[in-house]
Amino acid sequence: MISQFFVLSQRGDNIVFRDYRGEVQKASAEIFFRKVKFWKEDGEEEAPPVFNVDGVNYFHVKVVGLLFVATTRVNVSPSLVLELLQRIARVIKDYLGVLNEDSLRKNFVLVYELLDEVIDFGYVQTTSTELLKSYVFNEPLVVDAARLQPLNPAAIFMQGTKRMPGTAVTKSVVANEPGGRKREEIFVDIIEKISVTFSSSGYILTSEIDGTIQMKSYLSGNPEIRLALNEDLSIGRGDYRSSFGSGSVILDDCNFHESVRLDNFDTDRTLTLVPPDGEFPVMNYRMTQEFKPPFRINTLIEEAGALKAEVILKVSAEFPSSITANTIIVQMPLPKYTTRVNFELEPGALGQTTDFKEANRRLEWGLKKIVGGSEHTLRAKLTFSQEFHGNITKESGPVSATFTIPMYNASRLQVKYLQIAKKSSAYNPYRWVRYVTQANSYVARM
Amino acid sequence: MSGHDSKYFSTTKKGEIPELKEELNSQYKDKRKDAVKKVIAAMTVGKDVSSLFTDVVNCMQTENLELKKLVYLYLINYAKSQPDLAILAVNTFVKDSQDPNPLIRALAVRTMGCIRVDKITEYLCDPLQRCLKDDDPYVRKTAAICVAKLYDINAELVEDRGFLESLKDLISDNNPMVVANAVAALAEIQDNSARPIFEITSHTHSKLLTALNECTEWGQIFILDALSRYKPADARDAEGIVERVTPRLQHANCAVVLSAVKMILQQMELITSTDVVRNLCKKMAPPLVTLLSAEPEIQYVALRNINLIVQRRPTILAHEIKVFFCKYNDPIYVKMEKLEIMIKLASDRNIDQVLLEFKEYATEVDVDFVRKAVRAIGRCAIKLERAAERCISVLLELIKIKVNYVVQEAIIVIKDIFRRYPNTYESIIATLCESLDTLDEPEAKASMIWIIGEYAERIDNADELLESFLESFPEEPAQVQLQLLTATVKLFLKKPTEGPQQMIQVVLNNATVETDNPDLRDRAYIYWRLLSTDPEAAKDVVLAEKPVISDDSNQLDPSLLDELLANIATLSSVYHKPPEVFVTRVKTAAQRPEDDEYAEGSEAAYSESSAHPADSAASPPTSSSNVPYAGARQPAAAPSTSPPAAPVPDLMGDLLGMDNSAIVPVDQASTPVSPPLPVVLPASTGQGLQISAQLTGRDGQIFYSLLFENNSQIPLDGFMIQFNKNSFGLAAAGPLQVPQLQPGTSAAILLPMVLFQNTSAGPPSSLLQVAVKNNQQPVWYFNDKISLHVFFTEDGRMERGSFLETWRSLPDSNEVSKDFPDITVNGVEATLDRLVASNMFFIAKRKHANQDVFYFSAKIPRGIPFLIELTTVVGTPGVKCAIKTPNPEMAPLFFEAIETLLKS
Question: Could you tell me which residue ranges the MHD domain spans (chain A) (predicted)?
């Protein structure tokens, strides 16, 4: 049970403030913001998501640069409150299409109306956009999405590939299209975040995939949907990992949205559901089965005299040439006494940027895209302010990379088909099944 | 719809309020709606638009739900400050609660419940009664929550109108949303009531387990948390529950998963079959790990919980250590928690992997994280004997990188490793010494100096090394100075040659004559005297064998761990503190924003009545007599200007027949001057050392107030204190710090105490056994008495309503009374002052024949309340004290306390 809910901008301005129980002082938003901004406790400089000041417990999550905060005086379930804060953000985004300070301010009456239905006397009532539609009457005023920074996760489809209707994912679930009728369409996104740690010799130390099948339905009349996954999918790995190589996809664990029925899941790996309105995860899964990492990163450091060294970074894309990764950023911390870096890109390099961030002595190499099967190299000549002692390799690195690879998924989990119960033979809504892989923690040690 | 809502925030050139007023009364609907939106906009940015109350309320009668909702939102905000105007809205509310549209019916009760104005509350009961039995589930679920709202405003009313029964009926409702809300409401009411209201019988239990499957995710959490209060009868019962709850582990909502984990862990305590337990552990591991794929905020909560779970059941995640490896983009608060868990899960089997990780972390950029990683390596060395050597070699590698803070952190942990494995790894000292001159942090320096002193005989140039530190002796921090002093003495004792002899002269001189630090000076004098009188004894003392230290990574006290595990999936498990430490929810009325006004109002009332006690006693009970309490219940905006509020039905007074007109002013501010402490160890027994002591409470903290008087012929120092197990688990919160006591001098010490540290079993006793030692005398033992009133907490004040309710809810067998024939209460005011200063709070007073009866409340830690009734004839000997408490076995202690308080 929470006492207050509020949304603060990055500057600490109150955008939304709702007091449900009147047990916590009104100044709580200010107290909270000051505490978070000047956090310094136990040697940590970032406030944890839950803390207590003078008997008031503050919870917060960061969503697109906004702080979603709840307060309470009692010993509640913190995961409930944090999950709730995320869900409130999602509901508001469903309604407004775009979630940011501007859209919140433009729609504050609607937001308050939503908040009153989502929470009563501090108790969560529902966070289902579908259910809320029957109780909420204000209409959203959609802000112009075109000039806005795209938001994750759906926004990742907006880059590159043209055939994806970029605006669809930022449109409100409830607002009507300017043209009148809504377009019948459904989006199923298989989003995988991969974490890989390579040892200095290139051997994989840990690897993990966190995946989500995300759905956003704009279908009228809520028809039933069947989603078929790989037939050879198995769940739960034994105590030994012998099954690798058999070709099957083995998930460590997975969970499902409450609307999903699993009657046939054990026999033919199909999920049945009536998708509620709004964006929601159909299924989350986790996999530590070995998989082929999309990129290999090689680093070589050569000393070149007492005050100089050369770093050679090589990135090889080990996925099919029909696929292109985009917005790749490779970063590498350099020794503290590095004063200057001269970069040398490969001849004919296009869409690549290099930078030496002096403040934290970090090299940054950006590549707009990398086509599968290709290899790219960067040479960086370092100049030091003092003679290095010991080992330069140990004082630099590890190399980390972030990237997005559309239409690629490392786990090989697939949506074999997406069936929509037909209302009539003419009914043929748009179906978008999209895959994307993103780097979570992709690190090569040195 | 026109334009953007943000336009409502723009201000107009001329007076905003008159303009809004005009628009609110416009004949056009749209204009009125726009105007209400503007009013709400102004309200949210903190502008005072309360003067538009009447105009806004006039817009309430509309068929337009959107507009109605806006008006309701406004009402919730301002009804408190305009109670008289709020009554205007009542008719519409009541009408709306019977509207054919269920949304409007629900909206009406929901809003009425949020308006904490007595007049509105009175009108709420009938609609609420109807709505609890409404045909529409949306109305019923709203009504269920509304009962909790009403209980918070007026608990009596809820009980009298039978709402609790209606609420219990809703547990069997066919709509899961209704069930969930009924459970949530009952759970909250139970939390605020001393009486059992929401008892989970095996019948309700199975009903709720069934509802679990159909509930929304949030309802599942309410139900799981309520169910966790149910104690299964036996292992079979527990297994049955687990079977029903286990599917929840697959839920996508992390809070459902954690609440299910909590339930399963609780049941596991009862399950005897090791196979079943092992199987459950296996089932819980994947969902727990999956929590780490959620947002970092949730990960943090999960990690804090996992930290507790692995302390009790290390096997659950023994094979999953890899998932706790830090990702480079984890927030620092996640990384720190992961490190802790990695240490806890480190074993001989995985230590190589773990060390590789730690080594990598130790070269990262974030200094705090790096330090913690280095420390983690040391902790693993101390924890895993067989891996210690590998840990040390990693530390040495790190030292060779020569990153300053890494080296310093490594030296600090290596010192601990030496303590853990004496005479094993000294070969690395030479490597450590190479970094000597780069040390600039006190703790690292002190550690290095300790190492040099401890192993002086093996370090050829130990004297040179120490000498290099000596030059800067006066500038060093105390921690380093103390180590330098001891190390030099050790060196001298081990190598009594000319060099060290000179050094010791310099050090002793510096540490006695040149310093202001009493600790340093005292220690130097001891050494000096020891060395000059009996060097052999000095060796025995200074070079004595040290106790071997152990790993501190499982440092939670078992009883605390039990309590925290019972609180998994609550804030308690994130803070790693028991709930009573941080939950300060005072009965809600005391926390309202109008709080300040209440305080002012009541103060005014008190001072007035204290100035004219006779007047106020004589005045008719309807006006002034009720003021202090009326102030508490009537959240009037400006108590000074508003006319005297109509009397609130005074249930307390009516029921006990109390005479409120004789309310006695209570001054909380004054603290009595403390009398001399009682002697607990007379000088005749203590070879000249006399100790007087007493427990005292100050600002909510308990202290042991001690006076040491040295009547012996020698200076006494090195005082230490120890408390034997006792009924309250009282123990010292820190070391006793007594300066050296020269003959004929004394020292008064206030030693902070903590509770529930080493609690003894058996019936509560006031006996407190204390042992005090010093360096010169044998250990002294003495007995002291724990006076219960020291523990009375500041939150022991009860509202009259809850006092009465608690009194009635406790069975008569919990009432104990005692006569004190020789105590006389003379000044009522002075007595009440004294009692309130000891956190015994005055509630009411009445006259019974020629006797005065006083009611008080008090509370001791762990939330145990005492309800007290004192009967006496003022000025005549004889006081009768009757108490009611859930813990009647405490009564004898309580009577001892009250006797002390009344006599003093």
Answer: 183-445
Residue A161 lies in a domain: no
Nearest chain B Cα to A252, which residue? Answer: B286
B62 has pLDDT over 90: no
* B47 interface with A at CB cutoff 8 Å: no
Q: How confident is the model at residue A175 (pLDDT cuts 50, 70, 90)?
A: low
Confidence of residue B705 (pLDDT cuts 50, 70, 90): confident
Sign of the Cα pseudo-torsion (B647, B653, B657, B658, in order): negative
* Domain CATH number, residue A303: 2.60.40.1170
Contact A79 B254 (CB under 8 A): yes
Chain A residue closest in CA terms to B593: A25
Give the mean pLDDT of B264-288. 92
Residue A156: inside a domain, yes or no? no
Q: Retrieve residue B180's tokens.
A: 């969930």
What total of structural domains would you count in chain A? 3
- A150 pLDDT more than 70: no
ipTM for the predicted complex comes to 0.87
Distances (CA, A) of A427 to A183, A220, A423, A442, B689: 12, 11, 6, 44, 98
Alpha-carbon separation of residue B840 from A383, B194, B792, B816 (angstroms): 73, 19, 7, 18
Statement to judge: residues A211 and A316 lie in one domain: no
Given a contact cutoff of 8 angstroms between Cβ atoms, the answer to whether A59 and A50 are in contact is yes
Beta-carbon separation of B582 and A138 below 8 A: no
Residue B333 near chain A (CB below 8 Å):
yes
Cα(B807)–Cα(A211) distance, integer angstroms:
57
> How many other CB atoms sit within 10 Å of the CB of residue A100?
20
Q: Which residues are CB-contacts of B509 (< 8 A; sequence separation ≥ 6)?
A: none
Q: How many domains does chain B have?
A: 5
What pLDDT is stored for residue B11 in this prediction?
A: 52
- List the alpha helices (DSSP H) in B495-556: 498-512, 518-533, 535-542
* pLDDT of B561 over the 50 cut: yes
Report pLDDT for B553: 59
pLDDT at B614 over 60: no
Question: Which pLDDT belongs to residue B554?
Answer: 58
| Structural domain harbouring A106 | 4-132
- Please tell me which of the candidates B145, B331, B363 has its beta carbon nearest to residue A394: B363
Opening angle at CA B151, ends B150 and B154, nearest 5: 80
| Nearest CB to B333; choose among A46, A127, A135 | A46
Write out the two tokens for B679. Answer: 């002697």
Q: What are the backbone angles phi and psi of residue B345, rounded to the nearest 5°?
A: -90, -5
Kindly state whether residue A240 falls inside one of the protein's structural domains.
Answer: yes
pLDDT for the residue numbered B1: 44
Q: Residue A82: pLDDT above 70?
A: yes
DSSP helix/strand/coil, B292: helix
* Cα→Cα distances B453→B458, B478, B541, B793, Å: 10, 17, 14, 49
How open is the CA angle B195-B196-B200, to the nearest 5 degrees? 165
What count of CB pairs under 8 Å joins A to B?
238
| Secondary structure element (H or E) that encloses residue A83, with its range | helix A78-96
Q: Could you report the per-residue pLDDT of B787-798, keeping only the tens digit for each?
A: 888 888 888 888
Q: Which residues of A touch B142 (CB under 8 A)?
A: 120
Lowest mean pLDDT among B133-137, B653-657, B760-764, B898-902: B653-657
Whether the CB-CB separation of B769 and B723 falls below 8 Å is answered with yes
SS3 B687: coil
pLDDT at B659: 39
- Parallel, antiparallel, or unpaired for β B689-698 and B679-681? antiparallel
Cβ of residue B841 closer than 8 Å to a chain A Cβ: no
Yes or no, beta carbons of A389 and B141 under 8 Å apart: no
On whether any CB of chain A is under 8 Å from the CB of B323, the answer is yes
- Give B-chain residues touching A399 at CB under 8 angstroms: none
